[in-house]
Specification:
alpha/beta; 21 helices; 46% helix; globular
Length: 553
């Protein structure tokens, strides 16, 4: 069952939203969207990227394929599944893993989407290589990270089970005709599943990129897709626009962004907390371009209404089966204080199927309201090109270009941070871009810095771990509104890992990605500072936290 979403807006914003709803109703705009009318956005190639509109019906028609792979994996003696992907190919599976955990009788799903050597080593240590199924997930088949993940783990599995049996431990999910398909066929992969070329990565959750991992981890994919299909029907062109949950949400986001409330602040019940990681990419990569867009704010520590500026839209995703009463009270306080709030009730975890479609539809609608192409990502490509230049140079010379970043032990660190933070103004946001291992301890320290900055300057804050955010919020950071102040955080790797068949290592790739990221931010005129921690990441983050506190006094 899909409950109606509700919203509370200040009177002037409510009037703008109502006027836009009426205009969409009068112009048959939802019908134009379903008819794949590219002029609804920029009039470019948008029509060729709308395959996700019909994905629920298509997937429900091939449940047998999903059930067969689930049974094959369940009876194959596997204890773990390790998905190797990045961005659109990894974030939906991560949400499912974090939401559902391990399903009785099925292997446990893990997701690797970081080139940090410590992260790769940590994931490897959590699985039994001889009893793990690897899913190499890459739409284009040419994305750097999934390819080097595959190279590394294929060699490790060959050592564990023998070269002749290694391929039977791998599944590929990719678009037809890709380089990854060729690799999978040559190496004798267990299965190859294909995405639809008409569905971009961030809109692919309900395609095989999301549903194959869902099936092998033991989810009831028929129930999950049934929820998604119910939402697709609720968003159909025959539904009055004011009753269409996807259209209403998208119009609210688009209209409020045009009025300066472009920081979409996500508050999600603990049981579905990771949905925000997927929403970050969908919103930022789809709308953050041409100098405008939505800036998603996920996992920001909650505060009293007074710490929030007039640039926020709050969206509360409340899990009906496990609500958080403290969150209920905080959201009610925000409404009382006059902040705009949208409330969405998710009946149970399987309701995420409906949310995937609701938000894809809403994001496409928001893009139309903003008048941008919601399906390309030009600035993500810029970072990839910058990274490729650096790794190519390393392959030739064996070194990266020399540099001298600001370090946590430098005498003038506090003054440098003060100058950086002094550039923050009303309506800005601050993003911490951390190229370090994702651990609870590291995140807690970064969240403490984030909260302190938010409370001191009353601005929105974001936290992304590199390089995964490059395929997510990185688009908005470089192509969206120039309202971001960026603190990039890098470290030395205590122990590196080689990439089989390459001169460069995982650590070199991560370093090249960080440098390429900073280079493009600087080229785009963004306010950015890089701070280097050294090898002891935890100690370095503690020192950075102290320095930030001093700089804000």
């Amino acid at each position: 069952m899909i409950r109606p979403q509700t919203w509370t807006l200040p009177a002037d914003l409510e009037a703008e939203v109502r006027a836009t709803l009426e205009a969409w109703a009068a112009g048959g705009t939802v019908r134009r969207l379903w008819a794949r009318d590219a002029t609804l956005w920029s009039g470019a190639d948008e029509a060729s990227w709308l395959g996700w509109l019909g994905i629920t019906e298509e997937q429900l028609g091939r449940l047998g394929d999903l059930r067969r792979v689930a049974e094959d994996v369940r009876t194959g003696g596997f204890t773990h599944v390790l998905l190797l992907g990045m961005g659109g190919s990894s974030l939906c599976p991560e949400v499912l893993k974090e939401t559902f955990g391990r399903v009785e009788g099925y292997p446990e799903l893990h997701v690797l989407d970081s080139t940090d050597p410590a992260q790769v080593r940590s994931l490897e240590g959590q699985v039994d290589l001889a009893r793990t199924l690897f899913i190499v997930s890459s739409k284009s088949g040419s994305t750097l990270e999934p390819n080097i993940f595959k190279q590394y783990f294929f060699e490790r599995v060959k050592q564990a089970v023998g070269a002749g049996r290694a391929g039977s431990r791998f599944i590929a999910i990719t678009d037809p005709g890709s380089k990854m398909q060729q690799v999978a066929e040559a190496d004798g992969f267990r299965h190859i599943f294909f995405g639809l070329p008409s569905i971009g990565g961030r809109y692919s959750a309900l395609s095989d990129f999301g549903m194959v991992p869902a099936a092998v981890m033991g989810l009831d994919v028929a129930r999950f897709l049934g929820q998604a299909d119910e939402m697709a029907n609720a968003c159909a062109s025959c539904v009055p626009v004011e009753e269409n949950p996807g259209a209403v949400l998208g119009i609210i986001m688009g209209v409020l962004a045009k009025q300066g409330r472009d920081k979409v602040t996500l508050i999600a019940s603990p049981g579905i907390h990771d949905l925000g990681a997927w929403l970050e990419q969908l919103l930022a990569e789809s709308t953050g371009k041409d100098g405008q867009g939505l800036i998603p704010v996920d996992r920001e520590p909650a505060g009293p209404p007074a710490v929030y500026g007039a640039d926020r839209l709050f969206v509360y995703l409340r899990l009906a089966t496990a609500p958080d009463r403290a969150q209920d009270e905080r959201v009610a306080a925000l409404e009382t204080a006059g902040h705009p709030v949208v409330r969405i009730t998710v009946e149970d975890p399987y309701g995420l199927g409906a949310e995937f479609f609701r938000w894809e539809f809403a994001t496409a609608v928001a893009g139309a309201v903003l008048g941008i192409n919601a399906f390309n990502q030009p600035d993500v490509e810029a970072s990839k090109i910058a990274t490729r230049r650096l790794t190519d140079e390393y392959e030739k010379s064996g070194t990266l270009p020399p540099e001298s970043p600001v370090r946590v032990g430098d005498r003038d660190l506090v003054a440098t941070l003060r100058a950086c933070l002094g550039k923050i103004g009303p309506g800005d946001y601050v993003a911490l871009l951390a190229y370090v291992e994702m651990t609870p301890a590291h995140e807690a320290l970064l969240q403490a810095i984030r909260r302190a900055v938010r409370d001191r300057y009353r601005v929105a804050t974001c936290l992304g771990f590199g390089p995964r955010f490059l395929h997510s919020t990185g688009q908005a950071y470089k192509g969206g509104p120039n309202t971001g102040v960026f603190l990039q955080i890098t470290c030395d790797d205590a122990a590196d890992l080689p990439v089989p068949g390459q001169t460069y290592s995982f650590g070199v790739v991560k370093a090249a990605q960080a440098r390429g990221d900073l280079q493009v931010l600087t080229e785009r005129g963004r306010r950015a500072l890089r701070v280097h921690l050294g090898k002891d990441v935890a100690r370095g983050l503690e020192m950075l936290r102290t320095a930030v506190d001093q700089a804000m006094k």
